[in-house]
Design goal:
Rossmann fold, N-(1-d-carboxylethyl)-l-norvaline Dehydrogenase, domain 2, 11 helices
């Protein structure tokens, strides 16, 4: 049985795709009203094509708010939030608590996949926590991997099927098992084996890259405003060059991931003695937009 924990923007579509591929799925979320609504077929996420999938496959999923009977599960996928607090530190307590809860009741041989965007080193730390709480040995009694969601809100259904997926194991054996599991659901050629730390960094790098590109467009808009010239025309003509693709400026960066993931990447490096200039500068530019 496949166990999905956390039914936010990515958790629900992920579970539905697994159910659509014929896997036995059990979904857990501590939000009772969310689970009650799902049991009635109420989908709070508005994504093109998702309602049609839910109509056919949501009833196949066992929905719960507790960890009862999770000892029957072979695979756990954690799609839990990892927000940033007021000090800029990533909050991982939701993941930590879920790992503790699973470790107390799950059986030997479990594969635990972390979909959440987390600081580099988190998956390894969660695997150690699981070992401590369960008394089991990694790579013989259980396996951990970081397999981040990489979909764009508004295109979740399309990109669940077409995006490349990472299987970042805490060991080679964990990565191999994660690849084998994901290949049951998604196209095998789109699943890439790597280490947990590289997978974590790649996910953060994706969003930091997008944030930086947006910052360039916003900085260019400020410069053009100062020179009293039309930034739209500047970008249009600059983009005629075959190797230039400047984005359109806007009101900064919104959404849940982009404003925080660059900082998480930078902080992960700072804890190892690293430093950064470009990514923080991009964040300041985007935060300064009206």
């Amino acid at each position: 049985m496949f166990q999905s924990l956390g039914w936010d923007t990515s958790g629900l579509p992920t579970a539905l795709f697994y159910a659509m591929r014929g896997l036995k799925v059990r979904g857990i979320d501590t939000n009772q009203s969310l689970i009650d609504g799902l049991k009635k077929g109420i989908i709070s996420i508005h994504e093109e094509g998702l309602e049609n999938i839910a109509e056919e496959h949501l009833s196949k999923i066992q929905l719960a708010t507790s960890y009862d009977d999770v000892n029957q599960s072979d695979v756990f996928v954690l799609c839990l939030p990892s927000p940033v607090d007021e000090s800029g530190k990533t909050v991982t307590r939701y993941l930590e608590q879920a790992v503790k809860d699973i470790a107390k009741v799950s059986k030997k041989g479990a594969l635990i996949l972390i979909e959440s965007t987390v600081p580099v080193g988190t998956t390894e730390r969660l695997a150690q926590l699981y070992a401590k709480e369960s008394g089991l040995k990694p790579d013989s009694d259980f396996w951990f991997a970081h397999c981040p969601e990489r979909v764009l809100p508004g295109k979740v259904v399309e990109e669940m099927d077409t995006n490349h997926r990472l299987a970042g194991g805490t060991s080679e054996a964990s990565a191999e098992l994660a690849v084998a599991f994901l290949a049951q659901v998604f196209k095998a050629e789109l699943v890439h084996s790597t280490s947990a730390s590289i997978s974590e960094a790649a996910k953060l790098a994706e969003n930091a890259f997008r944030d930086t590109n947006i910052a360039y467009a916003n900085e260019l808009a400020k410069l053009c405003t100062a020179m009293e010239i039309d930034v739209s025309e500047v970008i249009k003509l600059a983009n005629l060059h075959p190797r230039v693709e400047i984005l359109s400026p806007g009101l900064g960066v919104g959404g849940y991931c982009l404003p925080k993931d660059g900082w998480i990447l930078v902080e992960s490096a700072r804890q190892k003695g690293g430093s950064a200039e470009l990514i923080p500068a991009a964040r300041h530019v985007n935060d300064s937009m009206p």
